[in-house]
Design goal:
The structure holds 2 protein chains of 2 kinds. By secondary structure, chain A is an alpha+beta fold. Chain A is built from 4 helices and 5 strands, in the order αααββαβββ. In chain A, strands 2-1-4-3 form a 4-stranded antiparallel β-sheet. Chain B is of the alpha+beta class. The chains are: A alpha+beta, B alpha+beta.
């Protein structure tokens, strides 16, 4: 057996081995414990579903088509929070290929960004749904909220 | 001459053993700290709570187990409010150390009546429609 003790001249290789092991462990733990949890998909879905639930009750609620219908009050959604630029929704009620009523709230840029470069992790997440109940109801909702440390 | 050579050899081996020990301890500390990452847990709970709040409807009551949060706060010797739900600004704050915490906004407009029950290790949430108050 060829046993060889480490000498000071081996120091470079010694530190290189440590560096390789350390990098492997850091990469491994960062995969196992990813730092950022992304809930934007789920948030966009919940927002979209809340909007849909607010206008449907055994078909489209009659009052939805009236001018004074307040969708945010009906869906229990805070108006102020929609102005922070990180949330968006667009609801269209369509009859015979014509939009008879629409509701748009939040940052409109998010809808455009959802369709551009979907692989970009910084782009917002969108939820889209189309339901047919007498009318065709089309909704798109989006979230780009990432949270922050304070 | 031979003694001097042996002494030098011994010192070299001692240095390598010490360096290895320092490396192993450093890696161990890194793994332990990553494993109970307080900042990460703050983020997880803030986001989970925001999702629960967003999904909830008026009249609902939710009980959430917060044992992990209480244990971490205790470990970090933090006695302040670990959870704050701000109905005016619509945000959830989770804080488990004296330093910074994590905040996340929710869009549910219901008033949230909340209480941290430290004995039962639960966060209790009641959702009340604003006009019902």
């Amino acid at each position: 057996m060829n046993k060889k003790a480490l000498r000071f001249e081996d120091m470079g290789m010694f530190f290189l081995s440590f560096a390789v092991i350390a990098v492997a462990i850091v990469i491994g733990t960062s995969i196992f414990f990813p730092y950022e949890i992304d809930i934007r998909d789920e948030e966009a879905r919940i927002l979209g579903e809340k909007i849909i639930n607010a206008i449907i009750d055994n078909g489209l609620k009659e009052e939805v088509l009236k001018d004074d219908f307040n969708i945010l009050d009906e869906a229990d959604i805070d108006r102020q929070i929609l102005t922070n630029g990180e949330l968006y929704f667009k609801l269209e009620i369509i009859k015979d290929d014509e939009v008879v009523r629409s509701f748009i709230e939040g940052n409109r840029d998010l809808e455009v960004l959802c369709d551009i470069n979907k692989d970009n992790r910084d782009n917002p997440k969108c939820f889209r749904e189309e339901i047919v109940v007498d009318y065709t109801i089309r909704i798109i909702s989006a979230s780009n909220q990432k949270g922050k440390r304070f | 001459m031979k003694n001097k050579k042996s002494e030098s050899f011994l010192i070299e081996q001692l240095v390598f053993i010490l360096l290895t020990l320092v490396f192993v301890v450093a890696i161990g500390i890194f793994i332990v700290r990553t494993g109970d990452n307080t900042a990460f847990i703050e983020q997880i709970y803030a986001k989970q709570l925001a999702l629960i709040i967003n999904k909830a409807e008026a009249g609902m009551e939710s009980e959430i187990d917060i044992t992990r949060l209480l244990n971490l706060a205790q470990k970090n010797k933090f006695n302040g409010n670990i959870i704050t739900i701000d109905n005016n600004e619509n945000k959830v704050n989770i804080k488990l150390t004296q330093g910074s915490g994590y905040e996340y906004y929710f869009f549910n407009d219901n008033n949230i009546v909340w209480n941290v029950n430290k004995e039962e290790r639960k966060l209790i949430l009641n959702f009340v429609k604003l006009e019902d108050e």
